[in-house]
Amino acid sequence: MVSVLVVNDQSLQRLALRMLLTAEPGLTVVGEAADGDEAIRASAALRPDVVLMDSGLSGADALDTIRRIARPAARTRTPAPAPAPAPAPGFSGEAAAASRVLMLTAAEREADAWAALRAGAGGFLLNDADPAELTAAIRVVAAGDAVITPGLTRALIDAVRQQHTVRPLPRASGPGALTGRERDVLIAVAAGWTNAEIAQWLSIAPTTVKTHVSNVLTKIGARARVQAVTFAYESGLIRPAA
After folding, report:
1. 167-234, what's its fold?
2. pLDDT tens figures, 160-202
3. Dmax of the chain from CA atoms?
């Protein structure tokens, strides 16, 4: 069951989204928030799998809200308490605490995609998407994949092209550090393919694809697939068509 926190400053829109998602098998709405501050508190308390957030959110700065939801360590600057007992093997406390953020955005706000992705957003969907697109996108983001509409992909590419000062990447984290198979996987990820599609293309198991994706993220210093997409364009591994 995928748990969702709905964040929108319009009460009628929150109600409509709740009704839509509650009626969908496999999805459950665990809470609502009307602004960024409420969203941060609710996310920390409820630990939803996905935070469905409107890009025109009021209250706390939208980018700060994304950062503090997607990266729980950024929620507070208070010194950390004494270390807790080590987690069981295979369990990551930070990963368990982090929710994935899916943004609903208006077409005229597509240019904001770059900054939001940098902040940790896991995907974007135009707010005129149909119900089937929305529920599918929630499931994809919950599974750890990225959702970016074609128009937003173009805005992202344009933003990468316009970067005048891109911080040089350490040699160890450049494309040369990847194996041939890892490069293939990264190219497919940057093209928007899911793990299942990559597995079918490369004739390998989906679990093997997950391992390759994890290795790629580690080598390039990325936190999520969307950052891997920007890396693929910044490094020249993929060159968008004119």
Report:
1. Arc Repressor Mutant, subunit A (1.10.10)
2. 556 544 444 444 456 778 899 999 998 888 777 878 889 999 9
3. 54
**What is this structure's pTM?**
0.63
Quick check: do 2-84+95-159 and 167-234 share a fold? Answer: no
Closest of 55, 45, 63 to residue 7, by C-alpha: 55
Q: Report CA-CA distances (Å) from 149 to 49, 53, 154.
A: 21, 16, 9
- Pick among 3.20.20.105, 3.40.30.10, 3.20.14.10, 3.40.50.2300: CATH of 2-84+95-159: 3.40.50.2300
